[in-house]
Structure formats: C-alpha cells, structure tokens
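FORM 7B - TANDEM STRUCTURE REPORT

SECTION 1: FIRST PROTEIN
SEQUENCE AND TOKENS:
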Amino acid sequence: MSSTRERPTRTSDGLRKFHRMPGSRKRWTGSSKTGPISNANRSTTFINRDLTDMMTDTQNLPPSEHTLRTLLNALPEMHDLHSSRTLSYRFLNDLCQSVTKDMFSSVEPVAREFGPFGPLQFPYLEMGAVTSLDLFGIDELIIFAFYWSNRGNYRRVADLGANIGLHSLCLARCGYEVKCFEPDPETFAKLNDNLARNGASTVDAIQAAISVEDGTTEFIRVIGNRTGSHLAGAKSDAYGALDKFTVTTQAFRRVIEWADLMKIDVEGHEAELIVATTSSDWAGVDAILEVGSPENARAIFQHLTRIGVNMFAQLGNWRRVENIAEMPTSYRDGSLFVTSKTQMPWQ
C-alpha cells in the first residue's frame, strides 16, 4: 500500500485546503507543514462529530452542559459579536462563567461533557488569585470554537504557554497533531496530569519556553498569579512574592517551521517573537495570540504592517486591523489573529 500525505493549497480567498499526495511525514526540523494524520494522532472518537449534528443528542444532558454545547455551537456564526465592547459579549461572558462554574468547581476529576470536545476531567485548581475556572472565560471559549470549526484548515498546532493544558486538550480532541510548551516545572506537572487523565497521549508536551533562540533564560514565577508568570524582561510590573529560576528555551523559528497554527500566550514576550519573523514565515502558518501591553501592540502592528501580514482583532469583531487604535493592548481586549490570509476563517 502506498503512503500518502495531505498537501495544503490556498484558494482565491487565501484559505488552506488539503489534497492527498504521495509522500512521507515531516519531522520537527523540516520545512514542510503537512503529514498524514494517523489513527494514533487523532482522537477518532471526536474527529467526526459535527456541532450541528450534536444538537440532536442534547436532551439528556444536564442544563449547564447543554447550554455550553449550544454556546460553543453558536460562537462561530456570532463572530461579529465577539468584541468586549458589545453588550452581547457581556451577556455571553456572564453565561459562560455561570455554566463553567457549575461544571468544573469540583477538586475531584469528574467528567463533564465539554461541548463537541467530549467528556472532560478538569479538576478545580487554585493558582494564586486565579483559579482553573478562569481558564474557561468567554475569550477562551471563542478560541476553542475557532479550533473546532477549522479542523479542515489546519493539521499541526503549537500551544505556546500551555499552562495546565486546557487548550492542548481541546486541540487534541479536534484531531490536530499538538506540541505544547510550558516552562514552569510545577505547572508542567499539572499539565501532564490533565493530559493523562483525559487520555491525550498524542500531545507532545515539552518543558520549555519559546524565545527567539535556543538556550536558557531566567523565568519569574508570580506566586499570587501563576498565569502571569513570565520570562525575565517580558514584563515591568511583576508584583508580590516571586520565584526566579532558569528555564530552557526553544527557538520560535522551529515552531514556525513545524506548525500551521500557533496559539501564543507568552505573557509579554509575544512582541519579541513576532518582530523576529519575516513575511515568508507567515506563508504557511497562522497565529492567535494575546497582546499584553500598548508597547507590544505598537511593535507588533508596525512590524506586521511593514512586512505585509494581516491582523484581525477580536476587539473589532475580527475585522482586519487598519490602524494602531484597533489593536488589543491587554488580555481584556481579547485575541489577535495573524495571517497571510485575506480573512479570518470562521465558517
């Protein structure tokens, strides 16, 4: 039997489509972004489940699980209401907080139906002032809905700043090949626990930070808010009790060469990564990222504008960013989508 792989091509609107072709699988250091998705690399229980089909089997779900499934189903077609400046967003955020608190407040690993992603065990965890419930905010659910609706457009996804693994779990349930990166050893242990209890054995979890170059650097753990921990120099306003130690870094370029989608949540280090890219780097990869400060927003906007790469901001309901005033400047503004495509693929 001949081996095959899938090759991406672009349609006139810039979206990637996949076609079968002879070939072999690419390894981490290669330049091709494609490869076969074997049964070992897919969560086949979930990969053929379609959101609209699943609307027919919600009658027996508890109310919170039914509501969450409906919300995840609706978010892609509501993408023009995702801005945090809209009343719709505030309503959705309140709804999201209510249902996820009901579902994931137990410290025990109780399986709850997490929309199209299937049963999820994600026990409650305190991370300073932030808890695991904060990882289920509406901005995160918007990203999860994007992952699910784009299963035909991407194959390899890198999760930069994986924290305790919720994004990586959702990505694995979509059938993507996933590499995730988390430098904090204590957080990394929790990440591995969550991957194991949810059967995500195909996720390649790597204890490292992503930076411009391979090497080591100082990492600052913010005791009062573990989600705000960061590489030294990435933030100027670290507060409270801090732990400082050395972590391994892997070069961003290796991630770009491997992935066709990147989720980037690196707590202030995002501008340094983005400004190190060239126009050709974005020919085969997209990114969805958090921008942590006005300074980073300006640096990213100026660089990507100069090299001709498009930006689409949640703040503007995913319209293309035309000027610096339309850029997100903190997590409160939602995500930024970076791509060489002419539109953000929501449908």
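SECTION 2: SECOND PROTEIN
SEQUENCE AND TOKENS:
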Amino acid sequence: MLAITFFALIVSASAFRELNGPIVSKFWDMMNKDPNGDVSDDQITEFFKRYERQEPSQYELEVDEQDFTSGTNNWMNDFEVNDEVTRAYFRVLSLDAATELLITERDTNIIAAWCDEEGRGLVNEAEWKTNFPGLLRAISWGVMFVRYDANKDEKIDRDEFNTIFRAWDSNGDGSVTLDEFTTFWTTGSYGSQTEAEKVHGALDFNSDGVINQDDVDTLYSLIDSNSDNLLEFDEWTTVK
C-alpha cells in the first residue's frame, strides 16, 4: 500500500485528514521514548500492542480490526474519532499487503522506515511529525470505502461503485455537476469546496464539465489494477 496514492495526488488535504495532525501529535506523546527522546521500530510496535485484546505477546504483534476498534484500549477512545473513521485508519495502517486486515510488526517496521529520514534506526519528533502524516493521507478515501462497502466483503464492486456515483448525482440525471459534487464532498466531511473542485476536475476525464457514466467507468478501470472487476482497499487508495 505504499505506492503513490491516486486520490492523495488529487487533494492535498481534507476534513478527515485534518484529524491527522492531532492524531500524529498524540500518537507521538503516547509512545515510550529512549533517553534522547527518539523512538525505534520496537517502541512503535510496543504502542500497537496496547490494542491486543489478549495478553500482549512478548514477541509477535497481531492486531485485528476488533482489537483496534473495540478492545479495552482502542483507537476510537484514544483519538476520539467515530467507528467508521477508526475502521478507515485501521485499513490505512495495515500497510503490508501480505497481512491485510492485521497490524503486525511488518507494518510497524514500514512506519519506522518511512519516518526515519537519516537511516539511524531511530525516529525523532520532527521526523515523525513530518513523515507519518504521509502514511495517513488516504484517510478520506478510506472512510468512503468503509461507508460504501455495503456487504462488508472488503471490496467495492460495480454496484457499490455506482451507488457512490448516484450519491454524487443528487438529481439523478446521470451527470454530476460541480455543484452536486461539492455538496456531496463537503456535507460528507471529505473536504473543502476548493478540494471538491480539484477532485471534480480530475474525475471529469472527457473534460465536458460533468462526471458521467463514461467517466465513472474510466475511473473504475483505472483503480482496478488487477482487472478482476472488484476494487480492494489497496487498489482503492493506490495506482500501481
């Protein structure tokens, strides 16, 4: 999931991503530090062990979605976000495709390596606050994925994708104007009016001023990198 995020290239910020700043800061504050105030991959792993429902293992980290959302310690309570946002963060932080829908030491090692600018094996506060937000930048689209995966099979199929299109197309005429898309984008807390304009323009592939079914079909094919006619979370947030 570390490929360039398609949607993050469209928008640099969003209402949901405004959560990232406080979360990044509080996450840092909650981690144990070494005497110099730095953290290692082991200390990042130790932080995530707080979410394991069973007695945390001395060795292996394995946090599933139930751990993350509803354990005695859970992300929702720690960071004061709702259930769907918590579930989106869980998917965003499950970085290693081999352990999808688990957070393991493979994921915490990725986090540490991503933030460690100097290759010291340690991350300081400035590195953390500069780089960790980059791993969270797809959160708005993660929330959309959680909201519209109606059958909860961790895939967006054509019907579910068309449900999103119909949500954009408030008057049901088959074309999504900028005004319609802006209403969807802002009332759904995905981002600002300015960002809605950027996204609408990027998704209007034939440049006719509206998003229509042809644009939606083009977008679906672009996201569906393995051409199986289903959109998994890593496809949803990346272009391979």
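SECTION 3: OBSERVATIONS ON SECOND PROTEIN
Residues 1 and 109 are 14 Å apart (CA to CA).
The first strand starts at residue 62 and ends at 63.

SECTION 4: SIGNATURE
Preparer initials: ____
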